[in-house]
Amino acid sequence: MILTQKYVFTALACLSFAVIPVVRSATIDVVVGGPGILKYSPEFVNASVGDIIRFTFKQKNHTVTQSTLQSPCSPKADGFDSDFVPVADSVTQGFPVAQFTVENADPLWVYCRQANHCQQGMVFAVNPGDKFEAFKAAATGNTTSTTTSTSTSTSATSTAPAGSSKDHRVVVGGPGVLAFQPANITAQVGDTVTFEFRQKNHTVTQSSFNQPCQALSATGQPGFDTGFHPVADGSTTFPTYTIQVNDTKPIWAYCRQANHCTSGMVFSVNSVETGPNTFEAFKSKAMGSNGTSGSNNQNAGISTRLNSASIAIAVVGVVFGVLC
Ligand SMILES: *[C@@H]1O[C@H](CO)[C@@H](O)[C@H](O)[C@H]1NC(C)=O
Ligand SMILES: *[C@@H]1O[C@H](CO)[C@@H](O)[C@H](O)[C@H]1NC(C)=O
Ligand SMILES: *[C@@H]1O[C@H](CO)[C@@H](O)[C@H](O)[C@H]1NC(C)=O
Ligand SMILES: *[C@@H]1O[C@H](CO)[C@@H](O)[C@H](O)[C@H]1NC(C)=O
Ligand SMILES: *[C@@H]1O[C@H](CO)[C@@H](O)[C@H](O)[C@H]1NC(C)=O
Ligand SMILES: *[C@@H]1O[C@H](CO)[C@@H](O)[C@H](O)[C@H]1NC(C)=O
Ligand SMILES: *[C@@H]1O[C@H](CO)[C@@H](O)[C@H](O)[C@H]1NC(C)=O
C-alpha cells in the first residue's frame, strides 16, 4: 500500500542550520491526554534549538496541531498536524509517539483539534515566553485581552526548491523483515527521504562505503542517526524520520541494532549502478564485516546531525493511523 502524506508532520525546515552551535540536545517529553484528562502535560516547555519534543499519545483521541497565538484553536497555514491518534481505553503501554525537532527559538503554539478540546484549554506551547496564559485564555474564551502582536512561529518553510522536490518513502523493517524497502534509491538534491519505522526496533544511521556498519558520527564526521525507534508488534502507527538530500554524493546508511547490519540491513541514496561502489558491493561489505554496531547514544546522533555537511534534517514526525 502506498501511504499518503497526510499523516506526517509537515516539514519544519532548518534554515539556520549552518550557524547552529553544537549543543547537546535534549528530548522533552509531553503526555497528550489520558483517561479523563484533556490537556498536554506539561502545558508548555522552554526548549533550545535542536531539542526534540516528544509527544506520547494517551487516551482518548487527540491531535497535536500547530496554531497561532492569535487563533489558538485554528490550524496554522502550513503548520504541522499529527492528525487524530485514537488510543483505546485498554491500552497501557506502547502508546503512539510523535516528535519534532525545535528548529529555532520562536514560540510554537499547539492545540488539540478534537471536538471542543481546545476550547476546554487543551493547548500547548514551546517557548511561549510570558504569553502562555494569554494563549490559553484566548483558546478558552476567558480573555481579558490578547492584543499582542508577537510574530507567530515560523519555521514552516522548506529548504527544498519549491515545487520540484519529491519525498521518497522507505520502510524500515517490519515483522520478520531485516531490510530497508527499497534498499537503494536515486534522489535529486532537495528531495527528502522519509523513513517509516516498522517492527521491531531499528535505526537509520549514516555510515560510509568503506565501513558500512560504523556510524560516521562515531568516527568524528558529521552523519545523521535517527536513534532507535521501537515499534510494538501489532502496532499500526509508525514513527517516521525525514532527511533532506543536500548534494549528489552517495549516502550510505545502516541499522545499528544488534547484528542487523551484518545481516544486510543497509541502505543507500544515489549509489552508482556500475563500478566498485555499487549498492550490492556495499551490502556485501556489510555482511562480510563484523561491524561495530556500537552503542552510540541518541543524543550524540542528534547533535552531529545538526552539523551534517551532506544532509539537512528536515522533519521528524510520525505516521498515524496507517492501516496495514
Ligand atoms: C478520532 O476522532 C476523529 C475526529 O473526531 C474521528 O473522525 C475518528 O473516527 C476518531 N477515531 C476513533 C477510533 O474514535
Ligand atoms: C521559561 O522561560 C520563561 C521566560 O522566557 C520564564 O519566565 C519561565 O519561568 C521559564 N519556564 C520554565 C519552566 O523554565
Ligand atoms: C480566567 O483567566 C484568569 C486570568 O488569567 C484566571 O485567573 C481565571 O482562573 C480564568 N478562569 C477560568 C474559568 O479559566
Ligand atoms: C531498542 O534497542 C536499543 C538498542 O539495542 C535498546 O537500548 C532499547 O532498549 C530497545 N528498545 C525497546 C523498546 O526494546
Ligand atoms: C539497487 O538494488 C537493486 C535491487 O537490489 C539492484 O538491482 C540495483 O542494481 C541496485 N542499484 C544500485 C545502484 O546498486
Ligand atoms: C567475524 O568475527 C568472527 C568471530 O568474532 C570471526 O570468526 C570472523 O572471522 C570475523 N569475520 C570477518 C570477516 O572479520
Ligand atoms: C548542504 O549543506 C551544507 C552545509 O550545511 C551547505 O553548505 C550547502 O549549501 C548545502 N547544499 C545544499 C544544496 O543545500
From TrEMBL:
Q: Which Gene3D superfamilies match?
A: Cupredoxins - blue copper proteins (2.60.40.420)
The UniProt keyword set, sorted, is:
Signal
Q: Where is the composition biased (Low complexity)?
A: 141-164
Asked if the keyword Thylakoid belongs to this entry, the reply reads: no
Output the superkingdom of the source species. Eukaryota
Leader peptide range in chain numbering: 1-25
Annotated region (Disordered) at 141-167
Record's CDD domains?
Cupredoxin
Checking InterPro entries in the record gives: Cupredoxin, Ser-rich/MCO-related
Q: Which PANTHER family does the record associate with it?
A: EXTRACELLULAR SERINE-RICH PROTEIN, SERINE-RICH PROTEIN, PUTATIVE-RELATED-RELATED
Name of protein: Cupredoxin
